Amino acid sequence: MFQYFPTNYVWSLSAMIALTHGGQIGEVDQMCAPLVDAARAGNDPGTLAFFNAWKSGADKLAELAEEDKSGGRLLSAGEKLGRAALYYIIAERMQAHDFDGRLALYKHSLDVFLEGVRLARENCERIEIPYQDRHISGLYVRAVGVQGRAPVVVVMNGLDSTKEMLYRSCITSYLSRRGVAVLLVDQPGTGEALRLQKLHAIPQTEIWASKIVDYLQARTDIDPVRIGALGVSLGGYYAPRAVAFEPRFAAGAVWGANHDWREVQKRRLAREGENPVPHYWKHVEWVFGASDLDDFMQCAEAMHLNGVLDRIKVPFLVTHGENDRQIPVQYAHQTYEQLANSPRRELKIFTAREGGVEHSSLDNPTNAGSYIADWLAEQLHGTTA
């Protein structure tokens, strides 16, 4: 993986997310160059400097977009706002959950994102799905070139990703171009669900996943028997669990297996492997609504797939990067081996030959993303031609 900050994996990961999700290298370089010295201090110190640099870069793009709007150049304005929203999201995700400016910037990023989508006339619609006494928000992308009802894939976030971030991932356009609609959701513990709805993560993902399937089956443009699930990063736990207990899913896939996340937490306590975000332990306590580290570790005890995957009786794809420094590749093999009743199970380890060897292929997602999109399109009767 290209590490802009050679001694700081976590900060470099954020830069790579930006570069592989629609950011421009010149803009990313301008924001990162002043941070090189701060990055040497470690993951947590200096994140205020990171916040200010990335927010300033996004603010400048938003100002340029306003100039485009005043001249009637709305498409250009929309494109700039799309990148500005991405940079705001990157700035926000690096902060401690109780950082003063975090929530305000998150809300601003949502507004900027939707304005960018509107001005750029992008194939994207914000939706809300009733859940408990609140709702789960999502971004719905229609299948391209499909007459009548289309298949759909529900894309589930990881620990710290959001629907707006994954919308900018290549997987969204890859699936829609293959005749498969996409629904990116902020499930409990992520995005709007966590920040605005106060919905914390739960191990029983089928509870909220079933509500999403209810919503999709009620849509007149969706084929109710061709609904797939794709989990990214910690979604590598959420998606298999959802497919195992929600039989209306017709296929499933993971972009980064997360077979035994409780064990991963014990490894991280022993300082084995890399963390995805700064202020990691406070972040996971926030995600799960835990009162302290001991409480979180009790929550994490249920976050494994042992004894679950034999319930899956639909096609399932397990992918993983061979050099994943967050989640060891052994967990991909465990997930694959336990999919004993899947009529078509497949294990794909991305190597240096095709790229995408890091966590969820964030170092180079294009070839890995097209592989996953092709596989899901084949199972859901989309198109790969």
From TrEMBL:
Which GO molecular function entries does the Swiss-Prot or TrEMBL record give?
Answer: serine-type peptidase activity
Q: Give every Peptidase S9 prolyl oligopeptidase catalytic domain span.
A: 172-379
What are the recorded Gene Ontology BP terms?
Answer: proteolysis
Any idea what this protein is called? Peptidase S9 prolyl oligopeptidase catalytic domain-containing protein
